[in-house]
Design the sequence.
C-alpha cells in the first residue's frame, strides 16, 4: 500500500506532530508498505543532508495561512499523477485537509485527517477568522475518517464539524518502547549525579501553559529533604523566569534545570526518577511524556484535563490533580515521595499499560483503518459491480 502522509510540518523541525509522522512512516515501511511524507519546505532550515528511510517530497512553503492556499493543491495533484498513492492521510486540518478536499475528484482515494491539537484548540487565533473556519469545515466534511488521538481532539472535531461524529476513529499516538526496554547507564561525561529514585522529573517545553511555575510552588510547600527533589528537562522562553521563581521560593537548591536533554542521557534520567509530573494548566492534545514516563517505569502525576486524564488511571498508574492548584499538587508529590509501596505498585501497572501504545501496535491500527476504507470505497465503486 502506498500511503501519503500530508503534513504541514515535518522533520527536521522538532515537535510532537513531526515525531508522530516520522514514527508512523518508519513503522509503515517496516511493515512492508510504501509511505511518502508530503510536506512544505521548512522555514529557515536547510534540508541539505536530510536522510530518512522513507520518501520525503517537499513543496514550496505556504506564502500565507489565508491567501493563495488553494493554489498549493496543484503540488498534491502533480505528485499523485506522478506516483499514485492509495491513501491520503492529512496531519493537520488546515491547510492539508482543505487542499485534500479541493483535490478529491482528481485524487480518488480515502482521505483521513488527524488533528494534533492546536488546530482544534478553541483559542487558536486562526479559528477567529471566518474564512479559515469555513475551510477547516470543508476539509473535515471531505474526509472519509477523522483520527482522534484523545478526547481533546475528538471534542474539537465535533465542535468544528458536528456531523463528523460517526466518522471519528479513536487511535492514540504511540511511544518507542524499544528505547526504554533496557536500563540506560549514566553517561561518563555527565555533569550531574542524582541518587536513583530520589527525584521527580518534568519533561517538556518551558512555556506558560506547561505550568512549571505551579510545580515549583507545590515543591515549596513540601519539607526540604536536603537534596535535589525535582529535575526539569527542557528549555523555552520561561526558563529564566522559572529559575528566578525557584530562587524566590527558596527551592533553588532542590531543583535542577538541565535544559534540553536527548538520547541515552534523557533515558537514564527518566528511568532513574521516582515519578514524573505533568502540571499543564491550559490544554494538552496528547500526553506523550506520560507514555515516556510509563515506558521508563514511572508513576505519573498530571493535571485532570483531556489529553492527560485519558492516559492516567488514578491510584493505578498515577494521580490526577486540578490545574492551577499548588496545594493539591503538593499533596500528590508528598504521597509519592513518601510511599515506596505505592510507587512500586504504580510502576508495575504503568509498564503493563504502556505496552498497548507501542508504535508498532498503533501503526497496525492505522493500517486496519486504511484497509477498511479502501475496501468500502471499492464496494461502492460502480466498477466493482
Sequence:
Amino acid at each position: 500500500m502506498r500511503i501519503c502522509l500530508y503534513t504541514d510540518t515535518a522533520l527536521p523541525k522538532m515537535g510532537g506532530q513531526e515525531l508522530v509522522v516520522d514514527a508512523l512512516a518508519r513503522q509503515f515501511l517496516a511493515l512492508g508498505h510504501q509511505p511518502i511524507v508530503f510536506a512544505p519546505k521548512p522555514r529557515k532550515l536547510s534540508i541539505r543532508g536530510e536522510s530518512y528511510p522513507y520518501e520525503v517530497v517537499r513543496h514550496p512553503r505556504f506564502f500565507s495561512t489565508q491567501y493563495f492556499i488553494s493554489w498549493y493543491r496543484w503540488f498534491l495533484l502533480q505528485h499523485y499523477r506522478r506516483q499514485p498513492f492509495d491513501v491520503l492521510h492529512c496531519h493537520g486540518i488546515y491547510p492539508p485537509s482543505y487542499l485534500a478536499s479541493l483535490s478529491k475528484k482528481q485524487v480518488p482515494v480515502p482521505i483521513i485527517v488527524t488533528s494534533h491539537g492546536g488546530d482544534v484548540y478553541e483559542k487558536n487565533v486562526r479559528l477567529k477568522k471566518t474564512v479559515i473556519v469555513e475551510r477547516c469545515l470543508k476539509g473535515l466534511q471531505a474526509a472519509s475518517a477523522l483520527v482522534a488521538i484523545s478526547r481533546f481532539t475528538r471534542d474539537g472535531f465535533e465542535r468544528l464539524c458536528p456531523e463528523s461524529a460517526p466518522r471519528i476513529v479513536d487511535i492514540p499516538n504511540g511511544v518507542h518502547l524499544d528505547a526504554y526496554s533496557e536500563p540506560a547507564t549514566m553517561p561518563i561525561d555527565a555533569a550531574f549525579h542524582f541518587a536513583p529514585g530520589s527525584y521527580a522529573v518534568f519533561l517538556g517545553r518551558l512555556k506558560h501553559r506547561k505550568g512549571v511555575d505551579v510545580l515549583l510552588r507545590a515543591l515549596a510547600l513540601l519539607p526540604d529533604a536536603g537534596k535535589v527533589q525535582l529535575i526539569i528537562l527542557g528549555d523555552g522562553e520561561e526558563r529564566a523566569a522559572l529559575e528566578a521563581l525557584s530562587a524566590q521560593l527558596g527551592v533553588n537548591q532542590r531543583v535542577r534545570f538541565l535544559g534540553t536533554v536527548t538520547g541515552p542521557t534523557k533515558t537514564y534520567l527518566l528511568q532513574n526518577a521516582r515519578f514524573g509530573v505533568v502540571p499543564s494548566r491550559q490544554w494538552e492534545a496528547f500526553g506523550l511524556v506520560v507514555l515516556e514516563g510509563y515506558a521508563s517505569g514511572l508513576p505519573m502525576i498530571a493535571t485532570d484535563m483531556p489529553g492527560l486524564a485519558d492516559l492516567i488511571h488514578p491510584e493505578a498508574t498515577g494521580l490526577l490533580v486540578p490545574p492551577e492548584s499548588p496545594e493539591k499538587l503538593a499533596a500528590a508529590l508528598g504521597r509519592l515521595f513518601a510511599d515506596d509501596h505505592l510507587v512500586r505498585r504504580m510502576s508495575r501497572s504503568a509498564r503493563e499499560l504502556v505496552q498497548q501504545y507501542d508504535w508498532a501496535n498503533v501503526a497496525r491500527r492505522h493500517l486496519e483503518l486504511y484497509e477498511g476504507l479502501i475496501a468500502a470505497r471499492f464496494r461502492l465503486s460502480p466498477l466493482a459491480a
Q: What stands out?
A: The two ends are 23 Å apart (CA to CA). The first strand starts at residue 2 and ends at 7.
